[in-house]
Amino acid sequence: xxxxxxxxxxxxxxxxxxxxxxxxxxxxxxxxxxxxxxxxxxxxxxxxxxxxxxxxxxxxxxxxxxxxxxxxxxxxxxxxxxxxxxxxxxxxxxxxxxxxxxxxxxxxxxxxxxxxxxxxxxxxxxxxxxxxxxxxxxxxxxxxxxxxxxxxxxxxxxxxxxxxxxxxxxxxxxxxxxxxxxxxxxxxxxxxxxxxxxxxxxxxxxxxxxxxxxxxxxxxxxxxxxxxxxxxxxxxxxxxxxxxxxxxxxxxxxxxxxxxxxxxxxxxxxxxxxxxxxxxxxxxxxxxxxxxxxxxxxxxxxxxxxxxxxxxxxxxxxxxxxxxxxxxxxxxxxxxxxxxxxxxxxxxxx
Length: 350
Description:
The chain has helices spanning 2-8, 17-73, 81-109, 114-123, 126-163, 168-212, 215-227, 265-286, 303-316, 329-338, and strands at residues 232-239, 245-251, 257-259, 292-295, 322-325. The chain is mainly alpha-helical and 350 residues long.
């Protein structure tokens, strides 16, 4: 026993054999427990090393994908990828919106190319769109009513046709048809005479109107042409479908007739102002001058038409005093730049 203690634990050679044996047994138990823990830790270490290897491989794969994404997105670092992702999402949204707009344009263009559709749209006068739409609605209602009447007539004729049995009733119907044909011949001849007479009468009315336009309408036409910057050739009197007199604008170049209802708000205001100025000028010919006071009448005018209006007011100021109120500084600037010296006196109200 002493030899064993001296071999494995030199510090136990002095105690009694029984105490040395007990201590050796204790130390053996601790050593076995430590060995078991060492084996467990080694197994755990091997598993963690294996997991670490997989994680390193996963990280390498992710880094490779990130580098590929950076190259594709044109980013210099990973931190720029969220911004690139937002840009990509925005681009996808814009492309989707563009696709929907292209489809809508294709529907509106009736199968024409986008370039041709845009070209046709630019040729349309925006002042006439409202009037054209209203006229189309009226035509649609009229055609629907005609369709309803025709359907009713067809139904009545079919009912009468079913009731015919090929006997005396059919003979009566044939005789009635011949009578109606005879009447139609007379009616058609009368209709042709009336149609020709109506056309001749309209031509006479047009010639009379052109010769009889008074000085106020003539001056208003000139002012309207000036204020609209030549967009309109002038104004003239016309008749609506019921024969009532009405004023219309005449497009420059094309001679297209534009009713007041088909004009924009600004153009309608310019027509009213031209008529007002023409009436005032006619009044001043035979009456004492009276101040002409206006308050911000150019709100709906663009700079070109506002300048033309200011020049017209300056011409009127040679005949009577013109007082123009405004709180828009750019109109003051337009007046100072375009109205001749001596015709403009500025007063700032604080």
